[in-house]
């Protein structure tokens, strides 16, 4: 075979194998430069519920007995960061659930798995490393503070991670996730907790499950049904009376 033909064949084969944006054969491809990557609008935090980052890397990259799962990032106990899926692609971490107007959370979010078995505090290097990553994601994708959420927030009754040990107040003090100010007034008489939960972003089709998810995030040590303190917190969140990013209360 002449050399130039061989070169052409090799080029053709390489083209066929290269990753290309899918184009619909039903239409003529007339590319426009006026576009950008799809923008994630939520960040969902998880714990791995496993005992090592290596095991979690395996789980997030293989077919498992319970089905395939993945996340965009995994942070290990020592603060090591791994990226498994590009920010602009859809990873499989959220499953069924919703947050605010977002009904398909996987399509709109970045998922971060944290190397924690759910039974012990998150390590300091992991948290420091997470704060660095969140700062990067918030800046690059312009994600509002209120859109950094727990897996348990979007899937009440089905998920409880990142669990009771996760320091949400500390995160809010850095500008990731919301936390109520201490000095807000009690909720007014006739306060509608379900409406406030909906305003904050929670799905409310199962109000009992959502109330438990809210408790887990904002008052993990309390028990019983929602009380006046829960209502004060919810009222403050629904009103936007949250602590500022520097953690200093006005
Ligand atoms: Zn999760």
TrEMBL record:
GO terms for biological process: cell wall organization; peptidoglycan catabolic process; peptidoglycan turnover. Its EC number is 3.5.1.28. InterPro entries: Amidase/PGRP_sf, Amidase_domain, NAMLAA_amidase_2. GO terms for molecular function: N-acetylmuramoyl-L-alanine amidase activity. It catalyses: Hydrolyzes the link between N-acetylmuramoyl residues and L-amino acid residues in certain cell-wall glycopeptides. Pfam families: Amidase_2. This is N-acetylmuramoyl-L-alanine amidase. The lineage of its organism: Bacteria, Pseudomonadati, Pseudomonadota, Gammaproteobacteria, Lysobacterales.
């Amino acid at each position: 075979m002449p050399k130039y033909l061989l070169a052409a064949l090799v080029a053709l084969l390489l083209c066929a194998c290269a990753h290309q944006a899918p184009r619909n054969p039903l239409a003529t491809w007339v590319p426009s430069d006026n576009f950008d990557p799809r923008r994630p609008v939520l960040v969902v935090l998880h714990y791995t519920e496993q005992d090592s980052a290596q095991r979690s890397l395996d789980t997030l990259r293989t077919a498992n007995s319970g089905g395939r799962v993945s996340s965009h990032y995994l942070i290990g106990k020592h603060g090591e960061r791994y990226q498994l899926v590009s920010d602009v692609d859809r990873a499989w971490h959220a499953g069924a659930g919703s947050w605010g107007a977002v009904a398909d959370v996987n399509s709109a979010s970045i998922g971060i798995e944290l190397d924690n078995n759910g039974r012990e505090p998150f390590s300091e290097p992991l948290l420091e490393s997470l704060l660095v990553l969140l700062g990067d994601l918030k800046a690059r994708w312009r994600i509002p503070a209120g859109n950094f959420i727990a897996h348990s927030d979007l899937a009440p009754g089905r998920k409880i991670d990142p669990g009771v040990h996760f320091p949400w107040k500390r995160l809010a003090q850095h500008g990731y996730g919301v936390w109520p100010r201490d000095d807000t007034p009690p909720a007014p008489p006739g306060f509608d907790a379900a409406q406030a939960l909906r305003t904050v972003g929670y799905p409310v089709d199962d109000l009992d499950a959502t109330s438990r998810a809210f408790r887990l995030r904002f008052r993990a040590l309390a028990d019983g049904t929602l009380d006046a303190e829960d209502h004060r917190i919810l009222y403050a969140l629904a009103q936007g009376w949250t602590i500022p990013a520097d953690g200093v209360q006005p």
